[in-house]
Structures are given as C-alpha cells and as structure tokens.
Design brief:
The protein has helices at about 10-15, 20-25, 30-55, 60-90, 95-125, 140-160, 165-170, 175-200, 225-235. By secondary structure, the chain is mainly alpha-helical.
C-alpha cells in the first residue's frame, strides 16, 4: 500500500483496483493502508476545502482546508463503528476493523475525486460575486455556491461508496445483501457526515461574523434545514 498512493500512476491503480485488491487491503493489518488513505484525505479534501474557503479570504481558505478533512476523518471513525454493527444485521459478517478499513478506503477515493474537482470548484468560486459585508445569507449567489460545492462533495461521496460495491459483493452471500449494506452505509454517511459538517461549518460563511474556526452557532439548526432554505431561495 505504500506505493499505491505515491504517484499519479499508483493513484490510478488505486482507483481502478478490483475486489480482490480491496479485500486484501481491508483484511490485512497494514498500517500503510491507514497512512496512505489518511494522506489522501488530508491532501484531497484539504485542497477542495481551501478552494471553498477562498470565496471569503485566505484565512477562511486555511480553516476550511483543515475542517473538511477533519469532517471526513470524524465521519470515518463514527461510521466505521456504525457500519460494523449494521452489516451483520443485514446479512454481511464483517469485523469492526474491516468495516473501518473499508470506510477509510471509500473516503480516500472520495477525497481524490474532490481533489480532481478542485479546479472546477475554483472556476466557479472565481466567477461568483465575492462575499462582502453587503452579502446576505438570502443572496442568490450565496445559495448557488453553497449548493454547488455541497453537490460536488455528495458526488464524491457517492463515487467513493459505490466503489465498495464489488468488495461487498465479494463478501456477501448474494447481490441483494451487498446492495442493502451499501445503501445503509450511504445513509449513515449522509446523516452523520452532514451533522459533523454542520458543527464545523466548512460550507457556511456569515459576512457579519469574523473569520473563525468554529462559531458559536454550530449546535443550532441543522445541515438539511440550511440546504433546503438555500434551494428554496434559488427557486422562489
């Protein structure tokens, strides 16, 4: 695994890996797997987070570049345990260690996808009216950028999880079990990841507040409420 994420060619091999390779990675106790995947998350999600934060200023870019990988790593830790409990209930016998390793691999793939989307996100940020003191939370450019960047993250997350389907089919007694486990894991990632996202706020900027790592409003409201309000502002 030390060579899997060490160069563009090895990253390509990692993304194209088949179920046998994934099975070998998540069933063996290899510290290099953890190191390689965590590095991919920090670099990939960090670069995308920095692009998001750059809409406000350089300090926000730094904070968001730290917060987005942190969101992914905390979600990995939580869902590694949750998925290890859900899988046996759905007919797939995996250990907690295998579940955690599988989730880590999927989020490493997600982060690589986000890194690839960073230039596209930067183009959108660059061409969106900048955040100023006069920008309100109800401004259409605010809602547009919020939704676009969130959709990119969701797309990367779906790709990362779907890449686990061949591995789940390799483990599961039948395709239906693999599909149900994948859907349950996707739902868990969405629910836990979005709420961690809400607390750390990599997507939310309020021009009336100073740049800060975590604001006092982190435990008020919910991620889904904010996304719904942003979508409503665009269509109303």
């Amino acid at each position: 695994m030390t060579s899997i994420l060490g160069s563009p060619r090895s990253v390509d091999a990692f993304l194209r890996a088949g179920p046998e390779s994934f099975h070998e990675w998540v069933t063996r106790r290899q510290s290099a797997l953890m190191v390689g995947c965590v590095a991919a998350i920090i670099i990939g999600a960090g670069s995308y987070g920095a692009v998001m934060g750059s809409w406000r200023d350089s300090w926000q870019a730094l904070y968001t570049g730290i917060k987005l990988p942190l969101v992914i790593l905390l979600t990995t830790a939580g869902n590694g345990l949750l998925n290890g409990m859900l899988a046996p209930l759905l007919g797939l016998n995996v250990t907690f260690r295998q579940s955690l390793a599988a989730v880590l691999v999927s989020f490493a793939i997600t982060s690589i996808v986000l890194c690839a989307l960073s230039p596209v996100a930067l183009f959108i940020v660059w061409n969106t009216p900048p955040l100023t003191a006069g920008t309100r939370l109800s401004s259409p450019e605010y809602g547009f950028l919020q939704l676009t960047l969130a959709v990119f993250v969701a797309l990367g997350g779906i790709i990362g999880n779907v890449r686990l389907l061949p591995l789940l089919r390799h483990w599961a007694p039948n395709p239906a079990v693999a599909r149900n486990v994948l859907l349950a894991w996707l739902a868990g990632n969405l629910l836990l990841g979005s709420q961690i996202c809400w607390v750390l706020r990599p997507f939310i900027w309020d021009s009336k507040r100073p740049v800060e790592f975590i604001g006092p409003e982190g435990f008020h409201g919910s991620f889904f409420e904010t996304v719904f309000q942003a979508a409503w502002r665009l269509i109303s």
